[in-house]
Design goal:
Radius of gyration: 15 Å
CATH superfamily: Vaccinia Virus protein VP39
Bound molecules: S-adenosylmethionine
Shape: globular
Number of strands: 4
Structural class: alpha/beta
Distance between the termini: 31 Å
Largest sheet: 4 strands, parallel
Number of domains: 1
CATH architecture: 3-Layer(aba) Sandwich
Length: 158
């Protein structure tokens, strides 16, 4: 990465605007993310199933995109758990809300617009944070701030 701009940020400025969100992040529109997720579903579900998320936990999906990880996250925490999802792109958040309305997930799942750079949650609010395919959009200056935010909202010892 160079001079405060990530490669994917520059790609989003390409006239082709490859599957960009309204916020300008390339290859991030919900329909495109669906295709990517389905192509990688076995690997993603294996990784998610192996990170140690436990029943009853409260988990954040940071940069949830179209919400493809939310059903599996809800299944892992189960009826005594809860999932929150946040994304910078209002169009992706709207897509997730529509999708959630059509699903019967085993736990509450709330989604809202927000940034990894200032997560709208108190300290130690979550037992775990999941963040897939997002950090590469951040600049060199933004990355440490986002990692600090993810650490801040997860309880010590998790
Ligand atoms: C490639 S998509 C990945 C979405 C999802 N995690 C997945 O793997 O299917 C990247 C997402 O990160 C979001 N994003 C980019 N920068 C963000 C930031 N600073 N805070 C929150 N979300 C961000 C974009 O809006 C987009 O929905």
């Amino acid at each position: 990465m160079t001079e405060g701009r990530s490669h994917l940020h520059d790609l989003a400025r390409d006239p082709r605007r490859a599957h960009a969100t309204a916020g300008g992040h390339a290859v991030s529109a919900a329909g495109w993310l669906d295709a990517h997720f389905e192509a990688c579903r076995p690997e993603y579900e294996a990784i998610l199933g192996g990170v140690g998320i436990e029943p009853g936990w409260r988990v954040l999906d940071a940069g949830c995109g179209g919400g493809n990880f939310l059903p599996r996250l809800a299944g892992l925490v189960g009826p005594t758990g809860a999932v929150a999802a946040v994304d910078l792109a209002p169009d992706n958040v709207a897509a997730v809300r529509a999708r959630l309305a059509a699903l019967a997930l085993p736990c509450p799942v709330e989604v809202g617009v927000g940034s990894l750079l200032r997560l709208p949650y108190p300290d130690a609010h979550f037992d775990a944070a999941w963040c897939a395919n997002v950090l590469m959009y951040l600049t060199d200056d933004e990355l440490p701030a986002a990692l600090a935010e993810l650490r801040r909202v997860v309880r010590l010892g998790a």
